Amino acid sequence: MSTLLLNIPVTQYMFYFLSFVAILCGMMVVISKNPIHSILYLILTFFSIAGHYLLLNAQFLAVVHIIVYAGAIMVLFLYVIMMMNLNEKDEPNKKVFLKIAAVGSAGLLLLTLVGSLKGAEKMVAAAPLNTNVGLIKNLGQTLFGEFLFPFEISSILLLAAMVGAIMIGKKDPVK
Amino acid sequence: MRGILLQSAIISTPIEWYIMLSAVLFTIGACGVMVKRNAIIIFACVELMLNAVNLLLVAFSSYHSDASAQVFVFFIMAVAAAEVAVGLAILSMIYRNLKSIDINVLSKLKH
């Protein structure tokens, strides 16, 4: 019991820290002028979200998240930005009025999302908390049992995306 | 020991906080889509919005001890990977033809 009491603040602090990092880096993605910096801040945001997954007992998903997002998708972004050789100088800028309007409407969106929570019922965690949900054994059983057909469809989607990306990126033979 | 530590994360943190965090991240992504003019950064902000939703799905899944939501997160990741591959291929083709990825240049349909 004493170890449980000692441990509660630790995870709470980890939640605060990871949320702070995620929100700060998320804002820096929007604020920073250099596209490379934006993408690097986005990678930091993804790492803190992976930390949240670990806190939520989704261990396998945390690992997959780091591999797929930080390892594959973000590298693709960085490669494309470096290939186009974009930097701060040719970063287009919107008018100040449009920026203020955009931030204002985003604030209204946040207000709506948070305000809709106000009347919600208080939710409690499931009584016998199963901490093994995020392990690969349970996830695999769900994925290949209940969700077998969507899994097969998603493989076709990935194949189509691969062929499509190659077809689009190919040089035009006519020119 | 590790089980106790990880279990207390769900007990000690109310789900509302995770909903708030996801709402803030989603809003930041939406704000980036509206503020930025560089098409690649707009893509990155869409990824941020997808991740906010993923975080919420995982939070609900561990509060209910149900693995289905985490499987949905897998599918979202697969769709995001496909979307990014095709989208960046389109953007690099646009850059090759127009020498710019400013979204204001891509307004030919308007005229």
What's the arrangement of secondary structure elements?
The complex is a heterodimer of chains A (175) and B (111).
Chain A: H1 2-31, H2 35-55, H3 59-84, H4 96-115, H5 136-145, H6 148-169
Helix pairs in contact in A: 1-2, 2-3
Chain B: H1 2-12, H2 15-35, H3 39-64, H4 68-98
Helix pairs in contact in B: 2-3, 3-4
Ends of chain B: how far apart? Answer: 66 Å
Structural class of chain A: mainly alpha
Mean pLDDT figure of chain B? 85
Write the element-wise H/E pattern of chain B from the N-terminal end onward.
HHHH
How many structural domains does the protein architecture of chain A include?
2
Total count of strands of chain B: 0
| Count of helical regions of chain A | 6
Q: Please outline the major beta sheet of chain B.
A: none
Report the CATH architecture of the largest domain in chain A.
Up-down Bundle
Shape of chain B: elongated
CATH architecture of chain B: Orthogonal Bundle
Shape of chain A: globular
Largest sheet of chain A: none
CATH superfamily of the largest domain in chain A: NADH-ubiquinone/plastoquinone oxidoreductase chain 6, subunit NuoJ
Strand % of chain A is under 5%
Q: Which chains have the largest interface?
A: A-B, 88 and 79 residues
Oligomer: heterodimer
Low-confidence stretches of chain B: none
Q: Percent of residues of chain B in beta strands?
A: under 5%
